[in-house]
């Protein structure tokens, strides 16, 4: 069934989230701010600047008293992207002896809720969990929650991979997690990537068929969504040149083409597979150039000699 | 999709915008980004060069150089701003700034090289700083920084293992031909730039799965003409740099619609106040201004217009004006422009053709 809405790689599609989602991305220009707003922001800037300069001076002086610790924590909560403050926090924690995980997990979780793509916040959390790997299992739950919010957050996927190793997650469990993300949305490229990363270099026909079936659900429901096509291409690569498999794929793609004559991706894949079986591809090539002139240079103006003959 | 023609190129407004931002030092955004100012200055300085202006004159060269030098720590690394800890990211930005302003000799070059080399790990990766974060961005920063310092190869070279650096980058290559931040990490345009850039500097482009990667990169072009950073994401002007530079390094810029991309970049300009934003109608910033200009430069957009010929071009590998690259003798490996297609690559992958029939005597 095709219950999820189709995705489009369009500059104006509001459904696809930005990779940065920070002060520099996705901010509408809007009218100039009012004088009151400008004054408010200047005041905020002055407060932040004072506090930040104070903390940097304290760091240079090697201070690690409670008051300074508190100031740095406040600054991090306000601006979690400042690596120097995370460095300073770690210096102070190490100077005190042991590092209690709970406060660090609480602070980074708060920072990440505010800024889920903050490199230094994820790194601090990893630093903490590496020192106390008994927390690794709980981290898998945190990752599941973050990926529910934004299934494409690569910071979280990367962090999950690292803590999963600490937690002793098996390849099968990792695969099951990636599959669960696909079950929620068959167009999740990050999940396909995670699956592909776990595939063996070569696949026998049975294994390949199973993987192709996985991709086929998405390909047939939304043939313009490229996520599953990349996975499909990779599975075929790992399956080698098995003629029976290729012929079965050709048949499936021809069926898809009849259902979705406007879709470009089936034409591309059909062209490549047919050519590999020595079938003429001139008509498909011409069609690609006609429906997708933007990629004319990629398709080339002529078919290479010997290709598809 | 906009039906109107794209707006004119408002280069003078962009220059004024960059100058304005650099002087608006009490703004909240300025104050809260002090930790990464070094990169912001690099973007502004390079953007001004692409606008055929003199950043020393526009922004106060001596003051800028002194500020940059003041950010170099005893370890040799540079912080992102005054009082901030050293990091590879800002070490590269600092060296790039000094290179453009002709002041590399005024920093401690040996210490800087030692700082960079000291961050390499046994697996060839680089820590960003002493705190141990690993990311292929740092591989690029390290190789580029050492190249700029003239300490990547030859006598006086810093002791890093370039082969190991290349091998680590290769270990971050994914099923789609792209690269992530670490082994197993999803491909992302920014990481792809860092990885292919690092391999270009290391002269190891042989490790790149060129046709597959260039196909994946070509499929970043959206209906709007802009490029996104990975599948099913929004187009963003900064990918005009991250993606296009890699396609330029790999000789495949003809695989996208270059005119449509140029139009998209032009529509991302703020025609009233100057600067370029991530997408049309959004607020501008120096980051996107630099990368939008870099994209236009790589597209040959300035070269094609008589009023803009003669200005410096951006180098795809080093992201520096090409006159600086020439002056410093920065080397890299790239694939020259060509007309090869994806089908040519698929044809080359296929089974070998049957041997020709024997000659008849």
Structural summary, described in words:
The complex is a heterodimer of chains A (309) and B (361). By secondary structure, chain A is mainly alpha-helical. Chain A has 15 helices and no strands. Chain A has helices at residues 35-60, 66-78, 83-96, 101-114, 119-131, 136-149, 154-167, 171-184, 189-197, 205-221, 227-238, 243-259, 265-276, 282-291, 296-299. In chain A, helix 5 (119-131) runs parallel beside helix 7 (154-167). Chain A is elongated, with a radius of gyration of 26 Å. Mean pLDDT of chain A is 91; it is low at 4-18. Chain B has 361 residues and is an all-alpha fold. Chain B has a two-stranded antiparallel ribbon. The longest helix of chain B has 14 residues, at 37-50. The model of chain B is unreliable at 352-358 (pLDDT under 50). The chains are: A mainly alpha (309), B mainly alpha (361). Chains A and B meet through helix 1, helix 3, helix 5, helix 7 and helix 9 of A and helix 2, helix 11, strand 2 and helix 16 of B.
Mean pLDDT of chain B: 95
Strand count, sense and barrel status of the largest sheet of chain A are: none
Spatial extent as radius of gyration of chain B: 21 Å
- Termini separation of chain A comes to 38 Å
Count all strands of chain A and give the number: 0
Supply the helix-strand structural class of chain A: mainly alpha
Blueprint of the fold:
The complex is a heterodimer of chains A (309) and B (361).
Chain A lengths: L34 H26 L5 H13 L4 H14 L4 H14 L4 H13 L4 H14 L4 H14 L3 H14 L4 H9 L7 H17 L5 H12 L4 H17 L5 H12 L5 H10 L4 H4 L10
Helix pairs in contact in A: 1-2, 2-3, 4-5, 5-7, 6-7, 8-9, 9-11, 10-11, 12-13, 13-14
Chain B lengths: L10 H13 L4 H5 L4 H14 L4 H5 L1 H10 L17 H13 L8 H9 L18 H13 L13 H9 L18 H14 L7 H9 L20 H11 L8 H10 L8 E2 L6 E2 H13 L23 H7 L13 H8 L12
Antiparallel strand pairs in B: 1-2
Summarize it:
The complex is a heterodimer of chains A (309) and B (361). Chain A contains 15 helices and no strands.
